[in-house]
Give the backbone structure.
Amino acid sequence: MPAHDFVSPDRIRAQFSAAMSLMYKEEVPLYGTLLALVGEVNQQVLAEQPEVAEALRLTGEIERLDEERHGAIRVGTAEELATIARLFAVMGMQPVGYYDLSSAGVPVHSTAFRAVHEDALRISPFRVFTSLLRLELIDNPELRELAQSLLAKRRIFTEQVLTLIAQCERDGGLNAADAECFVEEALHTFRWHNEATVTAEHYRQLHDQHRLIADVVAFKGPHINHLTPRTLDIDAIQAGMPAKGIAPKAVIEGPPTRRHPILLRQTSFKALQENVAFLGEGDGGSHTARFGEIEQRGAALTPQGRQLYDRLLDATRAALGGVPAEANAERYRALLAETFAAFPDDLEQMRQEHLAFVRYLPTERGLAARGDAHRPLRWGELIKAGHVRIEALVYEDFLPVSAAGIFQSNLGDDAQAHYGSNANREAFEAALQMPVQDELALYAQTEYRSMQACAQALDLPNL
Ligand code: OOG
Ligand code: NI
């Protein structure tokens, strides 16, 4: 088949993201309520802050805003992870970053599947935080065996989707009809199944070891456990949730409120109780796994910026003297704001101090000055003279401390387990059958490409 009949992986991803949103709205109606709230708040921000609207227009993000979301799944075996990687590859999603959550008491390690090039991200930034259960961290040998045998028996992919993945790998793409079929078949893997694959007694044993283990092992597949829209003002969302009948977690994860947002701020609402039918019984059981989450994204940070962020976050937590929760939420918020005063809140300053990645965009004035012999030729001067405009490069990834907070708030605060620090990137990549990409290198490449394009548009000599 000629290559021009293939649908671009970016389009398949956009289609899949939309289909997933539709499915989750049916499965978890509160997600629909949340989407409506996010839509209202985003419209309000765009109306009241024209500079935010203009920045989003310039970077093309305005078009992706309503489509933007991430999801999360947890798989049980290396084989499931390797196959999910092949499934995501059909949609142009590659594993980026390694996250160790064992140090936070969650027996998983994870990566984010996402598009990596800015052009692809503009079409659809859909990402899936994907965790692999670490059975080796379960200390009870009988339970470990039970979990292994249950996982060995299940098939989380339909025959048709496996055939289409192989076809895509062989031919280099899928035509429109096959792409549509792929989206429909792939959705099945992420669906909620209310029949458990275990008896109520086995569920209880798995659950008592760790709620997350029951969530991964006792069901037919890796149901999507949340789908997260992107808001332009997470403080407004956090404040507006109760009036919509949604109870948010105690604190917003990530950096404090800023004029120039950095990285990622996230809040979530509690898992739903779902009816479950255990093996050999009718309905009547229940399981809590799925929840809602909202996020606000800001500038991607350079290695130096990230170090500063990590240091300030650690200092905040040390000053709090515990985990942020309902009782100390207000104090945490104040401490966070106070500590982060040390992080410059000006984009040009962050650029100059090599704290944040930016995009370089030529302005009308810069374009008009192309032939001018006396125009400035260095980035700092070009920016000051208004020939070049900078915008934050959006952070496309996740934060391990925040992810741990999200996991914990939905597992119940009583579910704190201790596994020590057990990062094992090699084992994760072996299961994945490929390396995870370095997110910092991806941001640096995007920034470099924007510099090149800007220099070319302005006819600048080598910078
Ligand atoms: C994933 C939790 C992490 C995020 O946005 O940081 C996450 C999970 O609960 O499976 O989604
Ligand atoms: Ni999430």
